């Protein structure tokens, strides 16, 4: 017992707090990615294997627009809109013809899209990583660290996007349509709701959220054609742990997993900390295969 | 009986429908006039519900024509049909269970070209017919009783300002008090000029509420007459509906 | 998805039964493949041998994709562990023993398949794709970072073992014998897989694909069937990994990366899933397409962009793949 107490006692309180902040920052970005994924799954029963690539394309569009306009926030808006449009085009061209077919075909189709997008990015931008500068360079003192304000800003923006998305689902006409379609696609059609366009809209929304998160995350890491993989894998873990198609559960799971990884990074390297989320996934599959946080929003 | 010489509101001709390989409708033909209540009688599984589903486009017709106000609607998607004035109240009601009563109604109200004033009018009218729904407007649809869900399903279809409502077994499993309420609402809708194609097992109610009836068996219309020409103990009723 | 099996073609009217025709065609193709080393130049022979290996991997994946209705992104793991299992055996046995390599490769792939299957079949079908992808990443990270055992990024390099049966033969593989050895194992695997898919066990798998709930309701332990299917599939994928390692004399982490699984899925869709032969055809088509594109436009050409487009178009318009298309064309 003493050894354990000593072990935990050895962690400085400050470090624990810093890692909590770090965990929440990445948790909110992950929540944004996972929300789009779980929205698309919940409504259309489509697992979007190209979600990580939409995230990556969002960051690259940011790089290009920033280089031409010099304005980060403008780049954020443009990349969100363009990735949303890309999502709509993807849905109309590849997923709409598959409506009514085996759901597995949609997995194959989105996998094909991820292949195209990833190789397009490699071809267009080359294998060397790009950097996005932080739009806000000031920082504040967090114990012994100069903590960048930008990270706090991302967290707030992500939370704001998720919050307004939630309000949109709850109160807007389109939100009511989306929820009605989720519950009963056939009856929604019989009530005059243009279900094929609801699908397109939902896919565009989910894609736009992935694009926005790619752009927001951009300055924290390096931008390359494979960056989507880490995020989509984590987002998949989040939606399994949170209960697939369950928005509230995904958000809680995103923050939970990111916090665990941040704490694990106190002892091991960040690369190895990824193992923590794998362990959470395996435990979830073992004990609560329908999701750890299912009861939270239902 | 409404004017039969004019173009009927709905004209179904020689409809064949399949579920996979099983042949359900074998050439159903019927008409519904403007503002007319038409009963569709028959035992379970003779294709009454399938006829309604085919008209609203949820099931594709393999053969035959469906005309609405003279134009063909057989290839139109269901949401377009709802927009041009065909309301559908399915057999199992299919309330959006997680949506509130208000949100259920909004699915039919949030169409393009409906002013806020008109929306309020439609809601007020529905709530005056179904005061229970007004009381429960913020309650989830899934928490309502069977009768209340039926009311909501009808009210929801009314939000479309339909020219015709396809009403599938509205009284199934309801208490007698609720049944008479449903009976009243059919009359009210009729007075407002809404046509109704009513599928029912309750023969006396159908004969009372409708102007004309069709009797179906094995996916075909076997008998067709004015509701006033026939009574519950008529041989036709005995033959096709008697137990 | 309509998954028409070749084996389900109704026999056409004629004197020969369907089975006889099948085995005749099989014999002709085998004969062509056997004499291939005498005809093909060195490059194309190796190309063909590798297509056979990729075809075996694709067939193994077809057992899940085409017959059970599960999309596996875990085949890179089974293939990769086959490679590393073989590599480990070859590096630690003196003299390097081919049979031990096969055994270790199969053990590695089978063990990984059991692990992946146990967890991935606990959820409904769409999750299978997700969880196998995640497991592919876990195994990749482990193999990539566990440098002391796996050689990390550089992988393991070894020399090809002899083909030896005690007291009978012992010779060094050359490109002829290597090709024949691969051909024998791939053909044997094909016959075995064909047996499996047409056995009562295979019928249950197909019934799971068509309607899992009903199969469960009839009383079949669906989860156990799926686990066995994944294990069988993993063993054949592992065999492909062993063959690839022996042919190329190395094991590398790149092959454990999920991209290999993705290629396998593309082979299946292009060739025609649920046909076993289709995936081999698909592997050949894919490799030829890649070779053709890089010869036309250079090595830097992102051949996966057009390949991805063809892949999507085929999913939408040609869900039965090249085999289905060829069959329809032949019937006309």
Strands, helices and their partners?
The complex is a heterotrimer of chains A (298), B (243) and C (332).
Chain A: H1 2-9, H2 13-44, H3 51-69, H4 72-95, H5 103-125, E1 139-142, E2 145-148, H6 149-171, H7 173-183, H8 185-190, H9 195-217, H10 227-242, H11 247-264, H12 270-287, H13 294-297
Antiparallel strand pairs in A: 1-2
Helix pairs in contact in A: 2-6, 2-9, 2-10, 2-11, 3-4, 3-5, 3-9, 3-10, 4-9, 6-7, 7-9, 10-11, 10-12, 11-12
Chain B: E1 10-19, E2 22-32, E3 37-41, H1 48-56, E4 61-68, E5 71-72, H2 78-83, E6 86-89, H3 101-109, H4 116-129, H5 131-135, H6 146-158, E7 164-168, H7 176-191, E8 195-199, H8 203-209, E9 212-217, E10 220-226, H9 235-241
Parallel strand pairs in B: 3-8, 3-9, 6-7, 7-8
Antiparallel strand pairs in B: 1-2, 1-4, 4-5, 9-10
Chain C: H1 18-39, H2 42-65, H3 75-92, H4 98-120, H5 125-145, H6 147-150, E1 156-157, E2 162-165, E3 169-172, H7 175-198, H8 200-210, H9 212-218, H10 222-248, E4 250-251, H11 259-271, H12 277-297, H13 304-317, H14 321-331
Helix pairs in contact in C: 1-7, 2-7, 2-10, 2-11, 2-12, 3-4, 3-10, 4-5, 4-10, 7-8, 7-10, 8-9, 8-10, 11-12, 11-14, 12-14
Question: Which outline of chain A best applies?
Answer: globular
Give the beta-strand count of chain A.
2
Query: How large a portion of the residues of chain A is in β-strands, by DSSP E?
Result: under 5%
Strand line-up of the largest beta sheet of chain C: 1-4
Element order, helices and strands of chain A? HHHHHEEHHHHHHHH
Please give the radius of gyration of chain A in angstroms.
20 Å
Which assembly state applies to the chains in this document? heterotrimer
Structural class of chain A: mainly alpha
Distance between the termini of chain C: 22 Å
Greatest chain-chain interface?
A: A-C, 42 and 33 residues
Q: Structural class, from secondary structure content of chain C?
A: mainly alpha
Largest sheet of chain C, in brief, is: 2 strands, antiparallel
């Amino acid at each position: 017992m003493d050894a354990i107490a000593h072990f935990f006692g050895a962690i400085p309180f400050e470090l624990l707090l810093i890692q909590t902040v770090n965990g929440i920052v990445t948790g909110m970005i992950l929540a944004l990615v996972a929300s789009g994924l779980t929205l698309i799954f919940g409504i259309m029963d489509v697992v979007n294997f190209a979600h990580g690539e939409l995230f990556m394309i969002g960051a690259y569009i940011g790089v290009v627009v920033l280089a031409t306009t010099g304005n980060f926030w403008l780049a954020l808006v443009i990349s969100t809109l363009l990735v949303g449009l890309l999502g709509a085009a993807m849905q109309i061209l590849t997923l709409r013809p598959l409506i009514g077919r085996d759901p597995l075909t949609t997995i194959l189709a989105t996998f094909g899209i991820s292949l195209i997008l990833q190789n397009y990015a490699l071809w267009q931008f080359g294998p060397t990583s790009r950097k996005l500068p932080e739009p806000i360079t000031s920082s504040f003192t967090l114990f012994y660290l100069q903590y960048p304000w930008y990270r706090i800003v991302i967290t707030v923006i992500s939370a704001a996007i998720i919050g307004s998305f939630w309000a949109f689902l709850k109160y807007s006409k389109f939100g009511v349509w989306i929820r009605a379609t989720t519950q009963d696609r056939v009856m929604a059609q019989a009530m005059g709701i243009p279900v094929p366009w609801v699908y397109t809209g939902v896919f565009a929304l989910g894609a736009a959220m992935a694009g926005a998160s790619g752009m927001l995350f951009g300055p924290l890491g390096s931008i390359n054609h494979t960056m989507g993989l880490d995020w989509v894998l984590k987002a998949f873990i989040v939606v399994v742990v949170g209960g697939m198609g369950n928005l509230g559960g995904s958000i809680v799971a995103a923050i939970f997993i990111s916090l665990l990884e941040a704490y694990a990074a106190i002892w091991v390297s960040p690369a190895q900390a990824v193992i923590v989320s794998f362990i959470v996934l395996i435990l979830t599959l073992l004990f609560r295969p329908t999701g750890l946080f299912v009861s939270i929003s239902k | 009986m409404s004017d039969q010489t004019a173009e009927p509101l709905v004209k179904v001709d020689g409809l064949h429908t399949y579920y996979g390989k099983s042949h359900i409708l074998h050439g159903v033909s019927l008409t519904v006039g403007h503002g007319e209540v038409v009963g569709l009688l028959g035992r379970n599984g003779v294709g009454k519900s399938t006829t309604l589903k085919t008209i609203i486009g949820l099931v594709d017709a393999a053969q035959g024509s469906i005309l609405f106000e003279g134009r063909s609607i057989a290839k139109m998607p269901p949401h377009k049909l709802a927009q041009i004035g065909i309301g559908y109240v399915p057999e199992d009601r299919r309330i959006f269970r997680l949506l509130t009563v208000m949100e259920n109604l909004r699915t039919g109200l949030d169409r393009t070209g409906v002013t806020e004033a008109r929306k309020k009018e439609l809601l007020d009218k529905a709530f005056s017919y179904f005061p229970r729904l007004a009381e429960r407007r913020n309650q989830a649809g899934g928490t309502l009783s069977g009768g209340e869900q039926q009311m909501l399903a009808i009210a929801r279809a009314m939000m479309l300002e339909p020219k015709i409502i396809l009403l599938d077994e509205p009284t199934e499993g309801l208490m007698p008090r609720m049944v008479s309420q449903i009976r009243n609402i059919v009359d009210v809708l009729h007075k407002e000029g809404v046509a109704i194609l009513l599928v029912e097992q309750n023969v006396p109610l159908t004969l009372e509420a409708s102007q004309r009836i069709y009797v179906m068996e094995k996916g075909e219309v076997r008998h067709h007459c004015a509701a006033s020409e026939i009574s519950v103990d008529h041989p036709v009723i005995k033959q096709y509906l008697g137990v | 998805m309509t998954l028409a099996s070749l084996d389900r073609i109704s026999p056409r009217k004629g004197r020969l039964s369907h089975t006889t025709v099948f085995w005749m065609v099989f014999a002709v193709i085998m004969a062509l493949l056997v004499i291939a080393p005498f005809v093909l130049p060195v490059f194309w022979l190796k190309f063909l041998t590798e297509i056979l290996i990729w075809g075996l991997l694709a067939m193994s994946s077809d057992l899940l994709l085409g017959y059970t209705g599960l999309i596996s992104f875990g085949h890179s793991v089974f293939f990769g562990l086959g490679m590393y299992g073989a590599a480990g055996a070859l590096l630690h046995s003196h003299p390097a023993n081919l049979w031990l390599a096969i055994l270790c490769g199969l053990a590695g792939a089978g063990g990984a398949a059991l692990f992946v299957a146990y967890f991935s079949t606990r959820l409904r079908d769409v999750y299978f794709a997700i969880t196998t992808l995640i497991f592919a990443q876990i195994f990749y990270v482990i193999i990539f970072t566990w440098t002391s055992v796996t050689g990390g990024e550089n992988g393991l390099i070894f020399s090809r073992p002899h083909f030896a049966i005690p007291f009978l033969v012992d010779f060094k593989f050359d490109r002829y014998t290597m090709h024949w050895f691969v051909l024998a194992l791939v053909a044997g695997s094909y016959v075995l897989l064909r047996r499996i898919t047409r056995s009562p066990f295979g019928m249950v798998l197909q019934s799971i694909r068509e309607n899992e709930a009903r199969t469960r309701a009839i009383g079949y332990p669906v989860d156990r069937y799926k686990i066995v299917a994944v294990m069988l599939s993993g063993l054949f994928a592992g065999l492909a990994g062993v063959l690839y390692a022996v042919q190329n004399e190395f094991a590398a982490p790149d092959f454990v990366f999920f991209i290999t699984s993705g290629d396998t899925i593309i082979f299946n869709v292009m060739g025609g899933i649920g046909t076993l032969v289709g995936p081999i055809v698909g592997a050949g088509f894919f490799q030829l397409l890649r070779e053709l594109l890089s010869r036309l436009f250079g090595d830097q050409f992102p051949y996966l962009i057009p390949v991805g487009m063809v892949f999507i178009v085929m999913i939408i318009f040609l869900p039965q793949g090249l085999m289905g298309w060829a069959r329809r064309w032949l019937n006309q």
